[in-house]
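Hey L., structure's done. Input below.
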Amino acid sequence: MTSGAKRGGAGLLLFGIILGIMLWGGFNWAMEMTNTEEFCISCHEMRDNVYEELKETVHFTNRTGIRATCPDCHVPKEWIHKVVRKIQASNELYHHFITKEIDTPEKFEAKRMHLAQNVWDTMKKTNSRECRNCHHFASMNLDKQEERSAERHDPHVWEVMDGLNPTKTCIDCHKGIAHHLPAEYDPADDVDAADG
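Output:
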């Protein structure tokens, strides 16, 4: 191999490495830019509906100043789960730009139960993974909770729920914690999930 060919090969390798770093960096930059509350509420469907509701809750304003943003609850922190969620979110962009299925408050309310059920189903499947980013059962002070809450958060119950038998999870009892419940929602449907 001639020295010119070696230099060309080394140059091509260096170019490939630089290009790879730029593409990887650009991909991660795009992931982070779309993982902000500002991005989430940049469309009026979210800003005018669920974001306004969030502002009325303890997840937005509380005595400690800790605040949950849209991605904290709706986007996984682990990279592979985050990528999967971002791919799924491309469907939301399709509906925003093309179908405009929820572009008015009336349309949003008409689809609220379906939208909420999708989120609840996802949270159920992941054992409320995003809730657990902030809420740790081992750190809960049951003495400071209402009796009913303390009973349900008993560590022995959650030991079972944290892996041995994940039939119940946070969302089973905490629907409506950050957003209004759909008009069609019937709490009686959750009695078995919360108490069973």
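The two ends are 73 Å apart (CA to CA). DSSP finds ten helices and no strands in the chain.

-- N.
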